[in-house]
Input
Amino acid sequence: MKVVICGAGQVGSSIARYLAASGNSVTIIDLSAELIQRLSDTHDVRGIVGHASHPDVLAEAGAEDADMLIAVTHADEVNMVACQVGHALFNVPTKIARIRAQIYQKPEWRRLFDNEHLPIDVIISPEIEVAHAITRRLEVPGAFDVLSMADGLVRVVGVRCLSDCPIVNTPLRQLTGLFPDLNITIVGIIRDGRPIVPESDETMLAGDEVYFVADTKHVTRAMSAFGHEEQPGRRVVVVGGGSIGLYVAQEIEERFPQVSIKIIELDKQRATEICQHLGHVVVLNGDGLDTEILEEANIGTAETMIAVTDDDEVNVLSSVLAKRLGAERVVTLINKPSYEPLVTNLGIDAVVNPRSITVSNILQHVRRGRIRAVNTLREGFGEIIEAEAMETSALVGRPLREIDLPDGIIVGAVVRGSTVIIPRGSTVIKTDDRVVLMATSGAVRKVEKMFAVRLEYF
Output
């Protein structure tokens, strides 16, 4: 597949790396010669320096025979015009744009993106997706990551194994016998920063970060088995009243009306503005690094503190301070991936990375075959993929124990209608089943082939 990417920032570069590693032909456009050079030197990506919305630049990038245009520059308007030019002049079949300003997406203006106006096939809104990711973590207290798959029927949960975790030092093959009502599939383990695709004889150790797949109805029981029985928070403090902070507060208000919310915002004018968009939320004008303002927000009695300013250092430091002042749990927004391995040692419970979330949203529209959803795990680990089983797939019609799955692929759940099946060796996948699986980065292309409409099995 030929893909033109507009914007070589964190999101654009990440998408380019993923797609190039999967054997796609990728051309990336950016005004920064330094960013283009850095990406071209390290990956099989063609780079062009120029304005991403200019017709001559898009022509040079090969838009005329491109299968997809992905516009993720820092400017919404450039992304929209690039898609317009790609459609009108080059007839690019699929156009994806990142658009941050929510005014463009209000219902009364949605016709702006009709085919006769600005024909954009997929609009990605990072701030809203980040807010969704944060509220999912509130639904499963004790988890550092929560993904929703199969229309909410399946959850993929990341959880840390503490020293008192009941199932540490137990080989995975023994879990079903020792815990017969623990109906989950372990699909990934991160140990000392090293990703592990678990075999049946793998043993979880204290300190491991574990990803498991479960029926949504059974997640609470699964969390108890890992020693996490935290109660849902009733008092939440949000540090940062920007777009993400506002969306988080609005979503919590809507979905969890029993929760008391307080927002701390440094800018006085912005604090006044967000008050007009919220109902029962208390907005405090002050610095999230100020002990007095945190105490005024009653941080010591808060079950959850959420740090979502536009400064990673402020988010990390305010989270550490909140923990020391008594907050039970902190969720921290971090843009720099190099910070993520460090923050768990600081007592931060969960990290949200906007770049990773945006990349996941875009990849689900890029993957071939009957791929319905994609979520990336830690950088370089792999993807959680939801795909629809076709009659021609080698997965269909035989017990899983008889199928020689490629290395790096683990089937986590099978959804048949509204029924969730946690797979065992005797499980038989049927046509039209939805399959939730984990695939390492090197195995993703094999997954695409397994779920292609016309299968040529690796």
Q: What stands out?
A: The first helix runs from residue 10 to 21.
